[in-house]
């Protein structure tokens, strides 16, 4: 046991990032992985000041499930920023959004939950704090106040723009190539989608092979359904050296990317290619198809050998003592303002954890 155990303390967020637009948003663009370490949705390729009519979106990023709008706010969540978020989503025809604020009002948490429950889109409400541990440098602390109940649910747009057309074309060509060249890729008989992501069931129920493409890269991965087979990652990792050696027999340019741990009940083991839908290449598609075929060949025996007990949903007992799973999660992360909002939506007092 260490001689000294440090304590965590909050520091004023503006002492770290003086202005949201000039300091926090650029920092988040460069460190989008910090937010994804909490959300686990594959955030990447964040872009600043993307146009939405006469307005500008703070950030747009890509995920394993499609594009996402990110709206940042210092202070307490307010109706104006919620309205902006809805406007951005509707204007860009994006179905996923992340709203970041220092403090989340209960009514805004309920509003986001309602929008998610009604299937209008998928919205995350996340609080951000600046903290120090002892005398350490400041660090961000992201806490999820509200999130979609089914992150993996596909939301097909009623109409998709140029990007959607390109994603559709890339996946159609990828699937056709796998079939015509008899590569043995699991994507061979899938139907392309303008979302840029396709799933097909793996050797166990609630495990999937997933192929995706965005503006920067394309990838093939083995993923789990949220909450299911979470402990299977540890079992697969025990055989990582064998798996990596067998995969290397394909003599592909890159190696497999393994996660250190599951995030929010999800994990993925994937192979990434630097081919994208902006500049489609038959050679890059062939590399992706070969990687997909090799991953299925190598992983299939290990997936088949997984004990059924490892597949149990981590959120099986959703009810405990009259509290729903959502309520228990909310109880651990919801910050209640003690003094109420200050001038212009600021925060006058401290905060306490709701118990």
Description:
33% of the residues lie in helices and 26% in strands. With 355 residues, the protein is α+β, with helices and mostly antiparallel strands. The strands form 3 sheets. Strands 1, 2, 3, 4, 5, 6 and 7 form a 7-stranded mixed sheet that branches. It has a 4-stranded antiparallel sheet with strand order 8-9-10-11. The longest helix is centred in the last third of the chain and has 23 residues, at 282-304.
User: So what's the oligomer here?
Assistant: single chain
What would you call the structural class? alpha+beta
Outline: globular
Cα radius of gyration in angstroms: 22 Å
Note the main sheet. Answer: 7 strands, mixed
Low-pLDDT parts are: 316-355
The number of helices is: 10
Order of helices and strands: EHHHEEEHEHEEHEEEHHEHHEE
> What share of the residues lie within helices?
25-40%
The rounded distance between the terminal residues' Cα atoms is: 29 Å
Q: Give the strand tally.
A: 13
- Mean pLDDT comes to 84
Fraction in beta strands: 25-35%
């Amino acid at each position: 046991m260490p001689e000294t155990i440090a304590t965590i303390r909050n520091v004023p967020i503006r002492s770290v990032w003086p202005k949201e637009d000039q300091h926090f948003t650029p920092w988040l663009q460069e460190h989008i992985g910090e937010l994804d370490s909490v959300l686990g949705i594959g955030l990447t390729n964040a872009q600043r000041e993307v146009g939405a009519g006469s307005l500008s979106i703070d950030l747009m990023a890509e995920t394993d499930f499609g594009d996402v709008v990110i709206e940042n706010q210092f202070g307490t969540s307010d109706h104006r920023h919620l309205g902006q978020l809805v406007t951005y989503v509707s204007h860009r025809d994006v179905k996923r959004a992340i709203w970041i604020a220092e403090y989340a009002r209960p009514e805004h948490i309920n509003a986001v939950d309602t929008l998610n429950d009604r299937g209008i889109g998928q919205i995350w409400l996340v609080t951000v704090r600046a903290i120090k541990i002892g005398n350490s440098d400041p660090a961000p602390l992201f806490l999820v106040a509200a999130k979609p109940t089914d992150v993996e649910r596909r939301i097909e747009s009623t109409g998709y723009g140029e990007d959607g057309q390109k994603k559709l074309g890339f996946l159609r060509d990828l699937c056709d190539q796998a079939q015509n060249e008899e590569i043995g890729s699991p994507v061979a008989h899938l139907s392309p989608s303008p979302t840029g992501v396709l799933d097909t069931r793996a050797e166990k129920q609630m495990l999937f092979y997933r192929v995706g493409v965005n503006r920067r890269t394309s990838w093939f991965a083995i993923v789990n359904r949220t909450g299911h087979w979470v402990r299977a990652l540890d079992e697969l990792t025990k055989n990582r050296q064998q798996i990596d050696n067998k995969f290397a027999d394909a003599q592909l340019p890159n190696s497999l990317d393994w996660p250190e741990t599951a995030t929010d009940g999800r994990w993925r083991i994937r192979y990434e290619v630097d081919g994208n839908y902006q500049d489609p290449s038959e050679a890059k598609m062939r590399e992706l198809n070969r990687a997909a075929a090799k991953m299925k060949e190598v992983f299939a025996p290990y997936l088949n050998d997984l004990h059924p007990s490892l597949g149990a949903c981590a959120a099986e007992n959703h009810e405990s003592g009259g509290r729903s799973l959502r309520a228990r999660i909310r109880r651990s992360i919801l910050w209640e303002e003690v003094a109420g909002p200050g001038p212009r939506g600021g925060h006058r007092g401290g905060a306490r954890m709701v118990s």
